[in-house]
Amino acid sequence: MRVLITGGAGFLGSHLSDSFIERGDEVFVLDTGSIAKVRHLLDHPRFHYIHDSIFNLELLDGLAAKVDLIYHLAAVVGVEHYVADPYETLNVNVNGTQNVLKVAYKYNRKLVFSSTSEIYGRNPKVPWREDDDRVLGATTIDRWCYSTSKAVGEHFCFAYHKLGLPVTVLRYFNVYGPRLDRVDVGRLFTIFMGQLLRNADLTVIGDGSQTRCFTFVSDAVAATVAAGLNDAANGHAVNVGVDVETSVLEFAQLMLELYGSTKSKIRFVSQEEVYGAGYEDIPRRVPDNTKMRNLLGVEPKVSLKEGTKMAIDWFRREANR
Ligand SMILES: NC(=O)c1ccc[n+]([C@@H]2O[C@H](COP(=O)([O-])OP(=O)(O)OC[C@H]3O[C@@H](n4cnc5c(N)ncnc54)[C@H](O)[C@@H]3O)[C@@H](O)[C@H]2O)c1
């Protein structure tokens, strides 16, 4: 099989590339980012890295023509990015996504679109089912532009599905693991990891009672591969996540314990201190993952403790290289 992965040099994309290479498939990665996360694949005869953008429609067209399956992961991701640069977030995630859908439709290639748990916004329901409401704040608050950009992408996916395109939407819930963002930036795991490596205190926002459902990358990738290969998933949105809730404070304590730090402690900080005045956090995000289990046949395998240990060990080795 020949597989195109836009954003394939990112965190999830690099692990997805590994998976398809291991299966014996041929992988084409289109990404504007650094090669750091796919460096180990660069010499592989079935791996092709194209350092370019989804805005290069001619290139995208040529790639879509020669593959069997397309994963669209390229996006502006991460709170610090979408709060700092809402224009780029909307442009890449909305207009760029349209380019990918356009070429997938032209050659009738199955497309798997990477969406997010942010879609549900601040809907207080627990857990979230795929057909639950989206509850968002005002458009004057930049924080909502990422959720909105992914929702527009999803609407385009379903519109193309009506036109006959085989497409599946995956909504990821806090995926973590080796090769996540650089330490100190990005998501909760890497922020805490950076602080641990520097012997600094772990900064927990508010009282840390807000919860997340952390999903180890191999479980997320298993669901992602299954979505691409399974026709029964066409036309569906599927939550990809573990349904075990962990508070941010518990997660910080677990990281302290597994890292074995004697120097770092937990420090509570206000939300404004970290993200400025315009940010609104979501207190609980829990997936109903029935569809992931039943439709994709994927059961999460890695516990938070095992996954966090593996990720900490990986980042520690990287820091000592
Ligand atoms: N990791 C998670 O927990 C999570 C949660 C929800 C949704 N997602 C979604 O999964 C996908 C992958 O996320 P990730 O965590 O690997 O993030 P990531 O930032 O590591 O990967 C995104 C990749 O897209 C690339 N990219 C950005 N603009 C591009 C462009 N114009 N053309 C080509 N490539 C471009 C970046 O260089 C990067 O390598 C994203 O669509 C994201 O929205 C991830």
Describe how the helices and strands are arranged.
Blueprint lengths: L1 E5 L4 H13 L2 E6 L15 E5 L5 H10 L2 E4 L6 H6 L1 H21 L3 E7 L28 H18 L4 E6 L2 E2 L11 H10 L4 E4 L5 E2 L2 E2 H13 L7 E4 L5 E2 H12 L6 E4 L1 H5 L14 H5 L9 H16 L2
Parallel strand pairs: 1-2, 1-4, 2-3, 4-5, 5-6, 6-11, 7-10, 8-13
Antiparallel strand pairs: 9-12
The structure holds nicotinamide-adenine-dinucleotide.
Describe this structure in words.
The protein is an alpha/beta fold. The chain has a domain at 2-174 and 215-243 and 284-301: 3-Layer(aba) Sandwich (Rossmann fold), CATH 3.40.50. It is built from eleven helices and 13 strands. The strands form four sheets. The protein has a seven-stranded parallel β-sheet with strand order 3-2-1-4-5-6-11, with helices on both faces. The chain has a two-stranded parallel ribbon with strand order 7-10. It has a two-stranded parallel ribbon with strand order 8-13. α4 (86-106) runs parallel beside α5, α6 (188-197) runs parallel beside α8 and α8 (248-259) packs across α11 (304-319). The structure holds nicotinamide-adenine-dinucleotide (NAD).
Question: What is the name of the CATH topology of the domain at 2-174 and 215-243 and 284-301?
Answer: Rossmann fold
Biggest β-sheet strands, sense, barrel = 7 strands, parallel
Molecules bound to protein: nicotinamide-adenine-dinucleotide
Tell me how many strands there are: 13
Which architecture of the domain at 2-174 and 215-243 and 284-301 would the CATH scheme give at its second level? 3-Layer(aba) Sandwich
The mean pLDDT is 95
List the uncertain runs: none
What distance separates the N and C termini?
35 Å
